[in-house]
Amino acid sequence: MYRTHSNGELRLANVGQEVTLAGWVQKSRDKGFMIWVDLRDRYGITQLIFDEERTPKEMVEKAKTLGREFVIQITGEVIERVSKNKNIPTGEVEILVKKLDILNASKTPPFTIEDETDGGDELRMKYRYLDIRRNPVKDNLIFRSKVSIEVRKYLSDAGFIEVETPVLIKSTPEGARDFVVPSRMNEGQFYALPQSPQTFKQLLMVGGLDKYFQIVKCFRDEDLRADRQPEFTQIDCEMAFVEQEDILNAFEGLTRHLLSEVNGVEIAAFPRMTYDEAMKKYGNDKPDIRFGMEFGELNAVAQHKEFGVFNNAELVVGIAVPGGASYTRKEIDKLIEWVKRPQIGALGMVYVKCNEDGTFKSSVDKFYDQEDLAKWAAATGAKPGDLICVLSGGAHKVRAQLSALRMEMAERLGLRDPKVFAPLWVIDFPLLEWDEETERFHAMHHPFTSPKPEDMHLLDTDPGKVRANAYDLVLNGNEIGGGSIRIHDKETQALMLSHLGFTPEEAKEQFGFLMNAFEYGAPPHGGLAFGLDRLVAILGGQETIRDFIAFPKNNSGRDVMIDAPSTIDDEQLKELSLKLNLQ
Ligand code: ASP
Fold this sequence. Notes:
ATP binds at residues 220-222, 229, 479, 531-534. The chain has helices at 57-63, 121-126, 128-131, 135-157, 198-206, 244-263, 275-282, 299-302, 308-311, 329-340, 370-380, 395-412, 458-461, 490-499, 504-517, 532-539, 570-575, and strands at residues 18-30, 34-41, 44-51, 71-80, 93-104, 161-162, 180-182, 190-192, 211-219, 231-240, 272-274, 296-297, 315-321, 350-354, 360-362, 387-393, 423-427, 432-435, 440-443, 470-475, 478-485, 525-531. By secondary structure, the chain is α+β, with helices and mostly antiparallel strands. The strands form 5 sheets. An 8-stranded mixed beta sheet has the order 6-9-10-22-21-20-17-11, sandwiched between helices. Strands 1-2-3-5-4 form a 5-stranded mixed β-barrel.
């Protein structure tokens, strides 16, 4: 037996017992006549003591050779500590060692295995197995496991069954590029890795399984944005014989369960907001509603004077920044610089200081009087002491810019408290989205999402106006889940694909299997998928999903530990009938 106890377990009640422990040397202090060693494992730290008078001499000699991260096994007696350490649960005892075995030596680690390490990101990723020994990373992985287990518990109690779907498949369109895998046995042909199990879960509904879930890896070959992983995990779900309302209730239940079990937070019914409302009020389809600063549209109260910038704009819109009236000229100039950065792209910013005495001082006093500015304050909900920030331009762009400013100001004002949870459903998404680059409509969610029946007639005349039975679950400004009621008849699916620019042949080639299935009694169905990595990070009160993934990829999609991706040798290429054509 390697150990009788873990290193987080022993207490005063164990004093007098002989125990065997194993673990890693966190640190050792050699005082000549005595050596102390902190022994660490996943469960904690236990102090060992080697004492010249009470520990056999050869064991003391061996203890002198120990270095950081050596793996050892000891046997000894639990004794009460003279100077107790109140900071750790085992701090009242120590082990008087009788026997020491070095199970494995260790090189000096390239960074300190401490909560606050001296290792940079790249180094920690290269030696991720050492990084995982550190509490913050280890605790995140334990936390993730807890969330996954609660998900499985809740869903299986609710009658969902977990089904594994294949990983070597044909493309599933979720709007990204596929990762592909060449097939050796089928020369010149390729599998795609699933961007999601979308079509399979729909086929499981046709198969009559009724309620499906899977905690599943998905793969999307996207240009890497900050904190995106090319492979990530979804909690993927689908239900048959449901309407949108049933789905929202089922997964609001799951989310509430997680918040309660994992965070001890009880949340009443989640608010719901239409996509249009979210865009109007927050300029964003995943609004952070932990704080206000809602948009106030100012066209009606700002386009009646001689100010051309506003008069020529499609939208004039502002927010009231709490307490912002006290900003100095310099601070406001900096803010204007901030919105003009290329990442935000505003051309300028008009501001109004709402003075404590009820008067206003604006950057456009030349054009607008106090009465005008009072109307702006009313529209943005500004109170004395606030600063109204106003942007103008094309509606779509200006909303995105003001949304970025709103989030930035909330961050600066400390309004984005990670311990506060504000979930909501955003519903009634548009079915289609115009893509400037390809100059055609794309499915905003995916091509299997059903249009709202009452909007179907617009498909030919005004496709951009058609709303979908699609919804997102948003938590603290992040989309943590999204889904839709699906099309379940062949004709509608064919119509949808033709609107997306597929010829009937292409539609048949790519999605014939699904449309065929729809001809054999497909039940009405719908579902959604949560992004597990992000969900876990938010519940864990952190921003970076990489910190909750055991072996993440870096920002260039590389695993720097195993050095992947990598080249393959000519023999392998030949076997796969592949020829590289690198310039
Ligand atoms: N497959 C979708 C996605 O990955 C989720 C869904 O519609 O259920 O976003």
